[in-house]
Amino acid sequence: MQLPSKRIELLERQIAQLKQQWPKHSVPAAMLLQLEALEEELEEARRQLANDISEQQSR
User: Are 4 and 49 in contact (CB under 8 A)?
Assistant: First the structure.
């Protein structure tokens, strides 16, 4: 498994790449679903990183 910080960087790049492909009109449902999934993964990775930092500081 990747470190949360590396996972965050990867997800941010994937989101940026997807948005570059975004059509100006009529975004396909598959692209919307992919973006939503990536954003949820990014949110989870950020939570994990925050938890990891919090645990390290409490030691």
Answer: yes
Contact 10, 2 (CB under 8 A): yes
Whose structure tokens read 């949110």?
Answer: 43
Is the CB of residue 11 less than 8 Å from the CB of residue 42? yes
Count of positions (residues) in the chain? 59
- Residue 29 per-residue DSSP state: H
Nearest 5°: the CA angle 42, 44, 29 is 55
| Sequence-distant contacts of 35-44: CB under 8 A, at least 24 apart | 38/11, 38/14, 39/15, 41/7, 41/11, 42/8, 42/11, 42/12, 42/15
pTM: 0.85
Model pLDDT for residues 19-33, shown as the tens digit of each residue = 999 998 999 999 999
